[in-house]
Amino acid sequence: MKKPFGSPGKASGLILRIGQCLFSTASIGVMTSASGFFTVTAFCYLIASMGLQVLWSFGLACLDIHALRFNKELHNHVIMSLFVVGDWVVATLSLAAACSSAGVMVLFTKDTEMCKTYTKFSCNLFPISIAFAFVSWFLVAISSYVMFWLVASI
């Protein structure tokens, strides 16, 4: 069976995992550098969700490096099922965190104009962090789709 783009043990899978890790880390870094983020629960949830994604993606990237370096096969049904469930959980949490944070930003900028009223908020940094979170979620969604397709074909 031909391994598709992004499958574990391939360089494309490693690139996807590194991208997930980098964008999640960037989201955390930008959000924590913004003043006033800790007063909004959705932003704290975004940081927690992205932290979980960093750990998950980094762990799987290390596994991909090991598989590439020692030419190991990772297409075991049990391992692939674990990857699918883990990717689904991380993708769901990441999407929920990004969407809730985006909703709070709409509330801040359009509905209540809190960004104009309260100068303690770094309202120009929040959307950047949220955009990084959405990109990270998109990369996890690609990985999740590939993993599901691989488990279904095994």
From TrEMBL:
Q: Where is the Casparian strip membrane protein domain?
A: 7-139
Transmembrane stretches, by residue range? 21-48, 82-108, 128-152
GO cellular component term, pick one: plasma membrane
Q: Which key words are in the record?
A: Cell membrane, Membrane, Transmembrane, Transmembrane helix
Q: How does it sit in the membrane?
A: Multi-pass membrane protein
Domain of life, per UniProt, equals: Eukaryota
Its subcellular locations are: Cell membrane
Record note on quaternary structure? Homodimer and heterodimers.
Instruction: Tell me which PANTHER family the record gives.
Output: CASP-LIKE PROTEIN, CASP-LIKE PROTEIN 5B3
Q: Which family does the UniProt entry place this protein in? A: Belongs to the Casparian strip membrane proteins (CASP) family.
Query: Under which name does UniProt file this protein?
Result: CASP-like protein
Taxonomy, top ranks, is: Eukaryota, Viridiplantae, Streptophyta, Embryophyta, Tracheophyta
